[in-house]
Design a protein that fits this description.
The complex is a heterodimer of chains A (about 240) and B (about 525).
Chain A lengths: L12 E2 L9 E9 L2 E9 L6 H14 L4 H21 L2 E2 L5 E10 L2 E10 L7 H11 L7 H30 L3 H11 L3 H8 L19 E4 L2 H15 L1
Helix pairs in contact in A: 1-2, 3-4, 4-5
Chain B lengths: L60 E5 L26 E5 L12 H6 L13 H17 L7 H7 L4 H13 L7 H5 L4 H9 L4 H17 L15 E5 L4 E4 H6 L11 E5 L2 H5 L3 H14 L3 H8 L4 H10 L24 H11 L4 H5 L10 H12 L2 H16 L7 H19 L4 H78 L4 H12 L1
Antiparallel strand pairs in B: 1-2, 3-4, 3-5
Helix pairs in contact in B: 2-4, 6-7, 10-11, 11-12, 13-15, 13-16, 16-17, 16-18, 17-18, 18-19
The chains are: A alpha+beta (about 240), B mainly alpha (about 525).
Main location (chain A): nucleus
Organism (chain A): Carya illinoinensis (Pecan)
Family (chain A): Belongs to the SNF5 family.
Chain lengths: ~240, ~525
C-alpha cells in the first residue's frame, strides 16, 4: 500500500479546532482562601463576551462559592479564550495526521483509561458524539463522565492543533518548499505520521497486532469511596 | 393579590410571558425569571396590583404523571446517588398551564422561536436533535427530584456540549416552568416583599424567591425600634429626638428618663403601632391621590409627596381605594366657578349652597365620569360628589322638573338628549348613593312617556291622510264608471243615428220608385228586414 503522497502537499488551513464544531476546551482550577474550584467544560468562542460574566456569576451562585470567585473565573475563561483566538488567524498544517489520543481521567467514582487514534484531518469529527457513544457502549451510569471524556479529547486535539500552528510557522521560516512540510512534522508531531507509515506500509495489515490490543483497550474502573479519597489526597499533594 | 406568575400569551409573552401572554412575552428573557437576558422574552410578567381579590387564585397548573422518555441517544442518566428507581406513574410533576405544549418527542413553535440557534442550520453541531437531547436530559434530571432546585451547573456537568447553548436551553426551560417549578411556592399569595426580592435577585424560578426573601421579609417590615433609655423594644409610640439622636419609648419619655440637657420639647412623637399604620387619614389619602395623578407610577416620588409612608404602603393603600380612583382626572375645584351653563344653574346653585356642608369623605370618591372631552359634565360630576347624596338627588329632581316645563315644541331628540344628560347627571350622583337612582328613573320614565305620546299623534295624523286618499280613489273609480256609461250611450246614439239614416234612405227609394212599389217594396222589405 503506497502512502498517499498527495496529502502531504495540502495547503495550510486557517486555524480551528479539527472538529465539526469549533468549541474551545476551558479548564478552570482556581483556589481562593483554601477553597479549590476545579472545572472543565467546552465553550463556544462565538458566544458574546457578556456570556463569560453571566456564566461566572451563575456558576458561583449555583455552587454557593464566595463571590471572589466570580472575577477569577471570568478572567480565567477570558484568558483561555483570548489564547484560542490568538491562534485563529494563523495557518495550521493539515497534512496526514493521525494522532493517538489518550484518556486517563477520574470522574467521581469512575476511572477511565483508554487510547485510540484520531484523524486530525477529519474536520467533521465530533468528540461529543464519541463521548456519548463511549458511555453508552461501556454502560457508564454516571452522567458526568460523558462531558469529561469529550473535554479530554478536545483538549488534546487543541494541543495538537496549536502545535501544528507553531510547526507550520517554524517550517515556513526555516525551510521553503513542500519537502519541508513533509518531514518536519514527522519529527515534531510525536511520531504519529511515522506510525501511520508503519501501520499502512505494504508489509503490515490493517488489523492490529495482538500484543497491542491491551494498549488500545478501554478500561473502566469503578472505585470505592476509600480509593477515591486516596486518589484525591494524592492529587492534592501533587498539586501543592 | 393574585398570583405572581402570569404568562403573557404564548406568543409571549407574553412571556411571556410569559407566556400571557405572553412571554413575558412573551418569553424572551436573558433570564426571564432573572428579568435580565435578552435572549428569551420573559413569559412571566411581574404581577401588577389589581383590584384585591378575596382569595388568591393560583395559576392553573396541570399535573402530569412522569412519563419515561423514549430511549434517546444520551448517556444513561441514572444519577450517581442512590435514588429509588422512579416508576413512571408513581409521582406527579406540576407543570404550569402555559407550558402545556411540552412533549418529549416533539418540538413546539415557541421553542423554535426562543432558541433559534438550534434550528437555523448555521452550525453543524446545533440541530434539533441536539436540542432535544439537551432539553430532555435537563427535564428528566429535574423530574428525578422535583423538590430540589436543579442548578444550571448540575445540568451542564452532565451534558456533552458547549455550555453557552446548554445555558440558554436551561434558562428557557426554567422560564417556562418546565424545570424548577414547584407549585407549593406559588400557591401562597405573593407578598410585596417576595416580588421585590424576585426582581432584585437573580434567583431562578419562583421557588427560589420566597425562600430567599423569607429572611429579608421580616427585616423589611418590622423596623424594631429600641429605646435608648430602657433598652426595650418600643411598641406603640416612641419619641425621637433628632438633636441628640435619642429614641425613647413612651414610658421613658413620660418618666423623664433622658439625659440632662435634653428638653422634653425636643422630642417628636413617632407612631409605630400597627393600627396606626393601617389607618390612612383623609389628608394622606388626598396627598396620595394628588401624587399619583402627578407622578403616575413613580412610587418613590409619591411616597415622598405623601410623607411618612413607604412606597409599599402607598401602593397598598392605592389599590385598596375604591375603583373610581383609577379615573383620577378632575380639574381643580377652583376653576369650577368660571364655567357654568345657565341651564344647569339650578344644579350648580344647589351644589354650591351645600358645598359648605359637604363631608370630607365624599371628596375622596371621585366619579367615573370624569370625561376629559366634556369638561362641563366632569365638573357637574365633581360637584355632585361634593354635595351630599340627598342634595344631589333634590337638585336632579329640580332640574328634571325645569326641563319638563320646557315647551313641547322642542324636538323630541332635544328632549331625549336632555333627558339623557339629566340621566347621566343622575347617574353620576347615583354612583354615590342609591337614593338618587329613583330620581333618575323617574325622569327616564317621563321622557319615555312623552315620546310615546308624540308617536301616537303622528300616527293619528297619518291615518287621517290615508282615509282621504282612499276617498279620492273611490271617486276616481266612480268617475271612470261614469265615463264608461257615457261611452256606451254615445255608441247607442250613433247606432240610432245610423238607423235613422237608413230609414230616410228607404223612404227616398220608396218615393223615387213609386211604380215599382211592389217589387221595390218587397225588395225594400227584404232589405229593411
Amino acid at each position: 500500500m503506497k502512502p498517499p503522497a498527495s496529502t502531504f502537499s495540502k495547503a495550510p488551513v486557517k486555524f480551528r479546532m479539527p472538529t465539526a464544531d469549533n468549541l474551545v476546551p476551558i479548564r478552570l482550577d482556581i483556589e481562593i482562601d483554601g477553597q479549590r474550584f476545579k472545572d472543565a467544560f467546552t465553550w463556544n468562542p462565538s458566544d458574546p463576551d457578556s456570556e463569560v460574566a453571566v456564566f461566572a456569576k451563575r456558576t458561583v451562585k449555583d455552587l454557593k462559592l464566595p463571590p471572589a470567585f466570580i472575577t477569577q473565573i471570568a478572567s480565567s475563561i477570558q484568558s483561555q479564550l483570548a489564547e484560542f483566538r490568538s491562534f485563529e488567524g494563523q495557518d495550521m498544517y493539515t497534512g496526514e495526521k493521525i494522532v493517538p489520543i489518550k484518556l486517563d481521567l477520574r470522574v467521581n467514582h469512575t476511572l477511565i483509561k483508554d487510547q485510540f487514534l484520531w484523524d486530525l484531518n477529519n474536520f467533521e469529527s465530533d468528540p461529543e458524539e464519541f463521548a456519548r457513544t463511549f458511555c453508552r457502549d461501556l454502560g457508564i451510569e454516571d452522567p458526568e463522565v460523558g462531558p469529561a471524556v469529550a473535554f479530554a479529547i478536545r483538549e488534546q486535539l487543541f494541543e495538537v492543533a496549536t502545535q501544528s500552528v507553531a510547526s507550520a510557522r517554524e517550517s515556513r521560516l526555516s525551510k521553503k518548499g513542500r519537502r519541508g512540510f513533509e518531514y518536519v512534522p514527522a519529527s515534531k508531531a510525536g511520531g504519529a505520521v511515522l506510525d501511520l507509515v508503519k501501520l499502512f506500509g505494504h508489509k503490515s495489515s490493517v488489523v492490529r497486532k495482538r500484543k497491542e490490543w491491551e494498549v488500545y483497550e478501554p478500561i473502566v474502573d469503578h472505585l470505592s469511596n476509600e480509593e477515591v479519597d486516596a486518589l484525591e489526597a494524592r492529587e492534592e499533594r501533587n498539586f501543592r | 393579590m393574585a398570583e405572581a406568575k402570569t404568562m403573557a400569551a404564548i406568543s409571549p409573552p407574553k412571556e411571556p410571558l410569559g407566556p400571557s401572554d405572553e412571554t413575558p412575552s412573551k418569553p424572551p428573557l436573558s433570564s426571564q425569571t432573572h428579568f435580565t437576558t435578552a435572549a428569551t422574552t420573559p413569559p412571566v410578567k411581574p404581577e401588577t396590583p389589581t383590584t384585591p381579590t378575596p382569595t388568591p387564585t393560583p395559576t392553573p397548573t396541570i399535573t402530569i404523571s412522569r412519563e419515561t422518555p423514549p430511549a434517546t441517544t444520551t448517556i444513561s442518566s441514572k444519577p450517581p446517588n442512590p435514588l429509588p428507581p422512579t416508576s413512571s406513574d408513581a409521582d406527579v410533576v406540576h407543570v404550569p398551564s402555559y407550558s402545556r405544549w411540552f412533549s418529549w418527542q416533539k418540538i413546539h413553535d415557541c421553542e423554535v422561536r426562543f432558541l433559534p440557534e438550534f434550528f437555523d442550520s448555521l452550525s453543524r453541531s446545533k440541530n434539533p436533535g441536539v436540542y432535544m437531547y439537551y432539553r430532555n436530559s435537563i427535564v428528566k434530571q429535574f423530574r428525578e427530584n422535583p423538590l430540589r432546585k436543579l442548578t444550571f451547573t448540575d445540568a451542564r456537568k452532565t451534558l456533552v456540549g458547549d455550555v453557552g447553548s446548554i445555558r440558554r436551553v436551561f434558562d428557557f426551560l426554567e422560564a417556562w416552568g418546565l424545570v424548577n417549578y414547584s407549585p407549593s411556592a406559588h400557591n401562597k399569595p405573593l407578598r410585596w416583599d417576595d416580588k421585590e426580592t424576585k426582581s432584585e435577585s437573580k434567583s431562578g424560578g419562583g421557588s427560589g424567591a420566597p425562600l430567599d426573601s423569607s429572611a429579608a421579609g421580616p427585616n423589611r417590615e418590622s423596623s424594631k425600634v429600641v429605646c435608648s433609655g430602657c433598652k426595650l423594644v418600643c411598641s406603640i409610640a416612641c419619641f425621637a429626638c433628632d438633636k441628640y439622636d435619642l429614641t425613647l419609648c413612651a414610658r421613658c419619655y413620660v418618666r423623664g428618663n433622658y439625659r440632662v440637657g435634653v428638653n422634653s420639647s425636643d422630642f417628636r412623637r413617632v407612631e409605630i403601632s400597627e393600627d396606626m399604620k393601617a389607618d390612612w387619614s383623609e389628608k394622606e389619602t388626598l396627598h396620595l391621590l394628588e401624587a399619583v395623578m402627578h407622578y403616575g407610577d413613580d412610587w418613590k416620588r409619591v411616597a415622598k409627596h405623601v410623607g411618612g409612608r413607604s412606597e409599599k404602603e402607598c401602593v397598598n393603600q392605592f389599590i385598596k381605594l375604591p375603583f373610581g380612583e383609577e379615573y383620577l382626572k378632575y380639574p381643580d375645584s377652583g376653576d369650577v366657578d368660571n364655567k357654568y351653563n345657565p341651564v344647569k344653574d339650578q344644579v350648580a346653585e344647589c351644589a354650591l349652597e351645600s358645598s359648605g356642608a359637604s363631608c370630607n369623605s365624599k371628596r375622596m370618591r371621585l366619579t367615573p365620569l370624569a370625561d376629559a372631552s366634556n369638561p362641563i359634565m366632569a365638573q357637574a360630576a365633581f360637584l355632585s360628589t361634593l354635595a351630599g347624596v340627598d342634595i344631589a338627588e333634590a337638585a336632579a329632581r329640580a332640574a328634571v322638573r325645569s326641563l319638563s316645563q320646557v315647551d313641547h315644541g322642542a324636538s323630541r331628540e332635544h328632549l331625549g338628549t336632555l333627558a339623557r344628560n339629566t340621566e347621566l347627571r343622575e347617574a353620576d350622583v347615583a354612583s354615590n348613593g342609591d337614593a338618587a337612582r329613583n330620581a333618575s328613573e323617574g325622569a327616564y320614565v317621563e321622557a319615555n312617556s312623552q315620546l310615546r305620546k308624540e308617536e301616537l299623534d303622528v300616527e293619528r295624523v297619518v291615518s287621517g291622510i290615508t282615509l282621504q286618499m282612499k276617498e279620492i280613489q273611490d271617486k276616481l273609480v266612480h268617475f271612470e264608471e261614469l265615463d264608461l256609461q257615457m261611452e256606451k250611450e254615445w255608441q247607442q246614439l250613433e247606432q240610432m243615428k245610423n238607423m235613422l239614416f237608413v230609414d230616410q234612405l228607404t223612404l227616398l227609394f220608396h218615393r223615387s220608385s213609386a211604380p215599382k212599389t211592389d217589387e221595390r217594396m218587397e225588395q225594400k222589405n227584404i232589405r229593411t228586414d
